[in-house]
Write a structure and sequence with these properties.
322 residues; globular; 12 helices; 48% helix; TIM Barrel; alpha/beta
């Protein structure tokens, strides 16, 4: 074939072939994967029985705060609400010294510019959902436009959704190519790929979708949009962590993890950290490789920290509503 006769750059051709070659080298992403569900259940039970107290608990609570993507993704969001969320992100609880700030504030694309202005100089990233969030039911052209808009408004991170309908129909190449196309648009911005695990039906599907997202270029894989139930669960997250682990063993590249939705208590968040540490190790115990997608978790963590500092629980009324 005479490539010079085609209206396509060598760079695009090479990138496309390289991505396909990666799949062929490492694994066939369409193969059936069997998950030992009983084994997963037993591991989760062990994680949940770990006792974390004293200084270790305090350290864990501070770490959780630093990993939170403080989020508002509602149809009733307003500029005022986004500004209030950004203020909270910078001032979690001014009466407690030494608190870390959250990792990011996550909003819809049309609020990115406001969040960017409010968070300037704070060290807090602005994350934006895109690709027809939360359903993902649109064309690739619209999804790319959605992503470009968020990036042009100043987003540091993009949280995209996969096409679950295509995935469940077995159109794995379609899902892969969509993720790869969005990743290419993102450039230096980090891409978190939302699997919406509550719609994937089985742990086997969760593992397959995780592998596809990682090989297509995800910087993070993320459980859920938070719009359906169940959202994040420990079994689902454990399966996704093991996908990350296997990829790291094969390639030496570290991929991040973000459970999102349904994690509203410090106790549960600490159990997630136990699972993270015992599955992937200390290298992943930071905001660069692990996030919590949450709206109410921060307040519960702050209440626990205040209890450790003062010996008494403060009323929830002392903490701003998310």
């Amino acid at each position: 074939m005479n490539w010079n006769s085609l209206n396509i750059s060598y760079k695009i051709v090479d990138l496309y072939l390289l991505k396909k070659l990666i799949i062929l080298i490492f694994e066939d992403l369409t193969k059936h994967v069997e998950i030992d569900k009983l084994g997963v259940k037993e591991r989760i039970n062990r994680f949940c029985k770990r006792s974390i107290k004293g200084a270790a608990k305090k350290q864990g609570l501070h770490l959780i705060l630093s990993m939170i993507d403080l989020t508002t993704l509602e149809g009733q969001d307003t500029e005022e609400k986004v500004r209030a969320l950004c203020y909270k992100a910078k001032h979690l609880h001014d009466s407690i010294d030494g608190l870390p700030h959250v990792a990011a504030v996550c909003v819809y694309p049309n609020f990115v510019k406001i969040a960017k202005q409010e968070l300037e100089g704070s060290g807090i990233n602005v994350a934006s959902v895109s690709t027809a969030f939360p359903s993902g039911q649109s064309t690739l052209e619209v999804k790319i436009s959605d992503t470009k808009f968020a990036l042009n408004e100043g987003a540091d991170e993009i949280d995209m959704v996969i096409s679950r309908g295509k995935f469940l129909e077995g159109e794995y190449n379609f899902v892969y190519d969509e993720i790869a196309a969005v990743k290419e648009v993102c450039g230096k911005a980090h891409l978190k790929v939302i699997l919406e695990t509550g719609e994937l039906d089985t742990l086997e599907n969760v593992r397959k979708a995780s592998d596809i997202a990682i090989y297509a270029g995800a910087d993070f894989i993320k459980t859920s949009t938070g719009k359906i139930s169940p959202a994040a669960t420990m079994p689902v997250t454990f399966v996704m962590l093991n996908s990350i682990k296997d990829y790291y063993i094969k390639t030496g590249k570290k991929i991040g993890m973000k459970p999102a939705g349904g994690i509203s208590t410090s106790k549960l968040a600490l159990q997630y950290l136990v699972m993270l540490n015992e599955t992937l190790g200390n290298d992943w115990m930071n905001k660069n490789l692990f996030r919590f997608g949450a709206s109410s978790l921060a307040n519960d963590v702050l209440m626990q920290i205040e209890k450790q500092e003062s010996g008494i629980y403060q009323s929830a009324d002392y903490f701003s509503k998310d």
